[in-house]
C-alpha cells in the first residue's frame, strides 16, 4: 500500500511537470485541444445528423445513443488523460528514452504514462463532458443510488479495457519496433464499434464483439443495463453488470504481459 | 527537364509509402470496418422506409461505400512531412532546388494518392461485399464520375498544402492537420450524405469546397445529381481551385520569407 501511494505521488509529480511544459506553447495548445474535440465531435455529429432525420436507430433514440456515446467518450478520455504517454512506447524505445526510465526508481509504465506533453486528451475530455452532459438531460433514465454507482464503475471499467489494449501494445513494442499500424487498427476499431448500439448488427457479430473482441463491454452492455434496454441483447443481460470486472481483469492481464516483455528488453541498435 | 524532376518526386512518394506496408494494411482495415459500421447503422435507421430525403436505402449504401473509399485521400502524411522538414532544417534543400516548392509537394501528394488509389481499387470487392456497390446510374454518370474525382483530388491537395504551410509559422502543425482531417471528412459528406444534414449545417457544407472531395463525385455516381447541376458543380469546383491556388501562391510567398533554419 505504501508502495502504491509512493508510485501515485511520483506519477502526479511527473505528470504535473510535463503539463507545465505544454503550457509554454499557447498557440499549439489551443489547436490541440480543438483538434481533440473535433476528432470526437465529428463522430458525434455523425450520430446527430443521422438521428435528426430518422429519429431512432435500431430502437435507440438520440438521448439514448448520446448516453452510450458519452459513456464511451468518458472512459476513453479518462484513460487518455491519465495514460496517454504509454501510446508513445515505440518512440520512447527507439529514442532510447526507455533506458533512462529503467534506471529511475519508479514504475516504468507509470513514467511512460506521465511523460507525455500531448494536450489532445483534454480536447477529448471536454467533448466527453459536453456529450454526456447533454445525454443526461435528454435521455430518460431511472436513477437510483445503485445505477449511479454502477455507472461510475462501468466508466472506470471501460477506461481500463481501452487502456489494456494500449498497455498490451506497449508490451509488443518491446519486441516489434513499429507498432503504429496495430495501434491505429485496434484503437480505431474501438472508436468505431465502441460507441454505437451493436444491435445494428446481427446476433452473430454481437456475440463476436462480446466474447472474442470484448468491445461490447466498454459501453454498449453497461449502457443497455442502465437504460433498461437489455431485452434486445443477443447475449445474457447479466454480462453487462460484469463490465467493470472485465475491464480490470483485462488490464491486469495486459500489465502482466508488459512486465513479462520488459524483462526481455534489449534496447535498440546493439 | 522539370517534368522529370517532378516525376522523380511522384516515384519517391510511392517508395516512401511502400516502406510502411503494415500502415497501408491498417488503413485498409480501418476503412473497411468503418464501411461495415456506417452501412449497418444506416440500414437500421431506414428500417421500414423505402426513400428518405429522396434517397433509397440502396443508393445510400452505394454512396456511403464509395464515399468512404474516396475519403481515404483526405488522410495523407504530406502535412506531417512538411512540418518535420521545417523542424529539421531539411526544408533548406527543398527550397534551393530549381523547382517550385509547392510543385514538389504537389508531386509528392500525387505519388502518395496514386498508391492509395491502387490499394483502394484492390479492396473495392471486399468493400462491396461489406457495404454494397452497383454500377453507375448511367453512361453519363459513369463518364463524369472520374472527372469529379479528379477535381476533388486537386481541391484536397491544395487544402492539404495550405495546412502544411502553417508549419512555417507554428513548426508543429499536428493540431491543425488533425483538425482538418476530421472537419473536412465530415463536411465532405463522408459518413453522412449532405441531404441528411440539418438545415443550417447543410448550408455551411454546401458553401464550402470540401463537398467536392467526397459528396459530389459519389452523388454523381448514384445519379442523385445529374445534367446541368453536375456542370455547375464542376464550374464551381474550378472557381475554388483557382481561388485556392491563388491563396497557396500567396501563402508560399509569405512562408518563403519566414524560413528559419534552427541552429544555424
Structure characterization notes:
The complex is a heterodimer of chains A (270) and B (264). Chain A is an all-alpha fold. Helix content of chain A is 74%, strand content 1%. Chain A has 13 helices and 2 strands. Chain A has a two-stranded antiparallel sheet with strand order 1-2. In chain A, strand 1 (56-57) and strand 2 form a beta hairpin. In chain A, helix 1 packs parallel to helix 6 (108-115) and helix 3 runs antiparallel to helix 7 (120-138). The mean pLDDT of chain A is 87. Chain B has 264 residues and is an all-alpha fold. Chain B is built from 12 helices and 2 strands; from the N terminus they run ααββαααααααααα. The longest helix of chain B has 31 residues, at 228-258. The radius of gyration of chain B is 19 Å and the shape is globular. At the A-B interface, helix 2, strand 1 and helix 9 of A face helix 2 and helix 9 of B.
How far the N terminus sits from the C terminus of chain A, by CA atoms, comes to 38 Å
Total helices of chain B: the number is 12
Query: How many strand units of chain A?
Result: 2
- One letter per element, helices H and strands E, the order of chain A comes to HHEEHHHHHHHHHHH
User: Helices and strands of chain A: which structural class?
Assistant: mainly alpha
Radius of gyration of chain B: 19 Å
Strand content of chain A: under 5%
Question: Spans of chain B of 5+ residues with little confidence (pLDDT < 50)?
Answer: none
Mean pLDDT of chain B: 88
| Global Rg of chain A | 19 Å
Low-confidence stretches of chain A: none
Along the chain, the helix and strand elements of chain B come as HHEEHHHHHHHHHH
Tally of helical runs of chain A: 13
Instruction: Give the terminus-to-terminus CA distance of chain B.
Output: 32 Å
Report mean pLDDT of chain A, rounded to a whole number: 87
User: Numbering strands along the chain, what is their spatial order in the largest sheet of chain A?
Assistant: 1-2
Into which percent range does the helicity of residues of chain A fall?
Answer: over 70%
Oligomer: heterodimer
Determine the structural class of chain B based on helices, strands and strand pairing: mainly alpha
Amino acid at each position: 500500500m505504501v508502495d502504491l501511494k509512493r508510485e501515485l505521488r511520483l506519477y502526479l509529480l511527473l505528470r504535473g511537470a510535463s503539463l507545465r511544459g505544454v503550457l509554454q506553447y499557447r498557440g499549439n495548445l489551443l489547436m490541440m485541444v480543438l483538434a481533440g474535440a473535433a476528432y470526437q465531435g465529428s463522430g458525434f455529429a455523425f450520430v446527430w445528423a443521422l438521428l435528426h432525420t430518422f429519429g431512432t436507430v435500431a430502437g435507440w433514440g438520440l438521448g439514448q445513443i448520446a448516453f452510450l456515446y458519452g459513456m464511451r467518450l468518458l472512459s476513453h478520455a479518462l484513460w487518455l488523460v491519465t495514460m496517454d504517454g504509454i501510446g508513445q512506447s515505440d518512440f520512447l524505445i527507439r529514442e532510447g528514452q526507455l533506458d533512462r526510465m529503467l534506471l529511475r526508481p519508479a514504475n516504468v509504465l507509470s513514467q511512460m504514462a506521465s511523460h507525455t506533453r500531448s494536450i489532445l486528451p483534454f480536447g477529448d475530455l471536454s467533448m466527453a463532458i459536453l456529450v454526456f452532459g447533454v445525454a443526461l438531460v435528454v435521455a430518460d433514465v431511472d436513477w437510483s443510488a445503485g445505477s449511479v454507482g454502477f455507472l461510475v464503475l462501468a466508466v472506470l471499467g471501460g477506461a481500463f479495457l481501452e487502456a489494456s489494449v494500449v498497455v498490451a501494445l506497449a508490451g509488443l513494442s518491446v519486441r516489434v519496433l513499429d507498432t503504429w499500424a496495430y495501434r491505429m487498427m485496434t484503437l480505431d476499431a474501438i472508436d468505431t464499434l465502441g460507441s454505437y448500439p451493436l444491435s445494428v448488427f446481427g446476433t452473430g457479430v454481437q456475440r463476436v464483439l462480446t466474447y472474442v473482441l470484448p468491445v461490447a463491454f466498454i459501453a454498449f452492455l453497461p449502457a443497455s443495463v442502465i437504460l433498461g434496454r437489455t431485452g434486445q441483447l443477443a447475449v445474457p443481460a447479466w454480462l453487462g453488470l460484469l463490465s467493470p470486472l472485465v475491464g480490470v481483469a483485462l488490464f491486469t492481464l495486459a500489465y502482466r504481459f508488459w512486465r513479462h516483455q520488459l524483462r526481455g528488453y534489449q534496447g535498440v541498435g546493439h | 527537364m522539370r517534368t522529370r524532376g517532378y516525376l522523380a518526386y511522384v516515384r519517391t512518394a510511392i517508395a516512401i509509402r511502400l516502406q510502411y506496408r503494415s500502415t497501408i494494411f491498417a488503413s485498409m482495415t480501418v476503412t473497411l470496418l468503418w464501411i461495415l459500421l456506417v452501412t449497418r447503422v444506416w440500414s437500421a435507421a431506414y428500417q421500414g422506409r423505402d426513400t428518405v430525403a429522396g434517397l433509397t436505402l440502396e443508393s445510400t449504401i452505394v454512396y456511403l461505400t464509395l464515399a468512404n473509399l474516396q475519403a481515404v485521400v483526405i488522410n495523407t502524411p504530406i502535412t506531417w512531412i512538411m512540418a518535420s522538414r521545417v523542424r529539421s532544417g531539411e526544408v533548406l534543400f527543398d527550397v534551393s532546388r530549381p523547382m517550385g516548392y509547392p510543385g514538389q509537394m504537389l508531386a509528392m501528394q500525387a505519388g502518395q494518392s496514386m498508391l492509395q488509389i491502387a490499394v483502394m481499387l484492390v479492396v473495392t470487392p471486399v468493400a462491396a461485399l461489406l457495404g454494397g456497390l452497383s454500377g453507375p446510374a448511367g453512361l453519363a454518370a459513369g463518364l463524369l464520375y472520374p472527372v469529379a474525382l479528379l477535381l476533388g483530388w486537386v481541391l484536397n491537395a491544395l487544402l492539404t498544402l495550405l495546412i502544411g504551410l502553417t508549419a512555417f509559422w507554428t513548426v508543429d502543425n499536428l493540431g491543425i492537420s488533425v483538425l482538418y482531417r476530421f472537419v473536412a471528412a465530415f463536411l465532405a459528406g463522408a459518413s453522412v450524405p449532405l441531404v441528411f444534414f440539418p438545415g443550417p449545417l447543410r448550408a455551411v457544407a454546401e458553401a464550402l469546397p470540401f463537398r467536392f472531395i467526397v459528396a459530389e463525385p459519389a452523388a454523381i455516381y448514384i445519379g442523385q445529381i445529374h445534367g446541368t447541376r453536375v456542370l455547375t458543380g464542376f464550374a464551381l469546383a474550378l472557381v475554388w481551385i483557382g481561388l485556392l491556388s491563388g491563396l497557396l501562391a500567396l501563402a508560399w510567398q509569405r512562408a518563403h520569407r519566414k524560413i528559419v533554419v534552427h541552429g544555424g
